[in-house]
Amino acid sequence: MVKCPNCGGELKFSPKDQEVVCPMCSSKFNPKELNATVKHANERPTADLSGTSYTCSQCGATLMSFDETAVTFCNFCDSQALIESKMSMNRPDYIIPFKKTKEECIAEYKRILNKNIFTPKYMKTEMVFNKFRGIFMPYGIYNVGFHGNSSNKGSKYSHRSGDYRIYDDYSINAHVDASYEGISYDLASNFYDEYSSAIPFNYNEKEDFNYNYLIGYYADTCDVDDSIYDDNACAVGSSDSTNQLNKYNEFAKYGCYSPSVKMSVTDKKRAMYPVYFVSIKDKTGKRIHYCVINGQTGKIAIDLPIDFVKYMIGSLLVAIPIFALLYFGPVITNVASSVITLIASFIALIISWSQMSKIKKRETHAEDEGFNNINKEEKKKTNSTFKERLKNNYKLWLAIIISGLVLLLQPVSDLYYYGATVVSLVLIILSFRNIIKEYNLLVSRPLPQLNKRGGDLSE
């Protein structure tokens, strides 16, 4: 723990006060002036020489540490410990302090869940609320710019000569003086890009790095080479500069509809940004749903599964008035009933196939540059095979075949039409369980990923 200079109590950084406070004596300290830092963990070689382990400086217990861990807590005495060797290797230049409290983030989490009536109960327990953890994640800060002439080509119709259309070509030069600062990307392979991009930070509120902002929170160091995001940062600046140039009518006047500016990285820094996270195991215990919240703005990114029973009850409640409307309204012809079930089957099939492709991309980390930078040897396959899709959707294929055959053969008796409609609808309803199962796979992750530091319900 970090002790209070006045009473010896445990200090914590308060997001609400933006000061380091002592709950015991109510003392408050400016983090920029306080002469106290997180205690260093004691390093020691392991018996098998396989690496280094760390011991708590408070009680001597072995600390739970991951490769990227920079600040952690002792499971026995709850003391905070800094692993100086890891922090010194990747010491950040800036830090954005936590500005949202844990209670505020839990309230936002509850608000989101209350809006989604199909969310399973296991996402709403007190155990989940208690597992929220605050952690500083490593980020790369990119400054990009372009200073000089941007040469662009234009072409404009001039006149017609016989069978030929004559165009005038133009060379359009624009002096560009553009700079972009604070373009940020996370440098932790275990923090998926889709989560980090969903909770952007306000770089203008950064502070010079100070260990006192870490008091009371976990922290990670980077394990991703910051050069991997150079092109991404340049693309952001180039895109905005191009949009600014397009506002000048001179370009369109001379037939240049896509002026371009090619940015380059002018400077790179490191920073720590605040994130609250919790990971919740599903009913199988083999997959995890994640919730990450921006500790500066409170913006949330969350994976919300669907409870099949709640979904079917909700569907039944919606179906009752629809059935009544159809019963007392116009009669649906035999052909129309088969056409409707055929269309419904195709829609369900398209949804399922789309989900399976997205699941495959997620499971293979196909679109996560940070993860792939660490796991370069893994070959990513991003599409599910036709065999997999056929196996998962055989009920929908049967519904399509049955409805299609009836429409193709055009039997004399209406019983064939309505019988085929009933069978097809039953198959579609049965396939809903599989579609919801696929959706829940899409909004979950296989173990492990962020299941650490007490933020996973496996504890």
Please outline the helices and strands.
Elements: E1 12-14, E2 19-21, E3 28-29, E4 42-45, E5 52-55, E6 69-73, E7 80-82, H1 84-89, E8 94-95, H2 102-115, H3 126-130, E9 133-161, E10 164-186, H4 193-198, E11 207-208, E12 218-220, H5 230-245, H6 249-253, E13 264-281, E14 287-294, E15 300-302, H7 308-328, H8 334-363, H9 369-374, H10 386-392, H11 394-409, H12 414-442, E16 445-446
Parallel strand pairs: 8-13, 9-12
Antiparallel strand pairs: 1-2, 2-3, 4-5, 6-7, 6-12, 8-11, 9-10, 9-13, 13-14, 14-15, 14-16
Helix pairs in contact: 8-11, 8-12, 11-12
What features would you describe in this structure?
Helices cover 35% and strands 25% of the residues. Helix 8 (334-363) packs antiparallel against helix 11 (394-409) and helix 11 (394-409) runs antiparallel to helix 12. The chain has 459 residues and is an alpha+beta fold. Strands 6, 7, 8, 9, 10, 11, 12, 13, 14, 15 and 16 form an 11-stranded mixed sheet that branches. It has a 3-stranded antiparallel sheet with strand order 1-2-3, with no helix packed on it. Among the domains are: 104-201 and 221-302, no CATH class; 308-442, no CATH class. The protein contains 12 helices and 16 strands. It has helices spanning 84-89, 102-115, 126-130, 193-198, 230-245, 249-253, 308-328, 334-363, 369-374, 386-392, 394-409, 414-442, and strands spanning 12-14, 19-21, 28-29, 42-45, 52-55, 69-73, 80-82, 94-95, 133-161, 164-186, 207-208, 218-220, 264-281, 287-294, 300-302, 445-446. The two termini are 22 Å apart. Mean pLDDT is 81; it is low at 378-384.
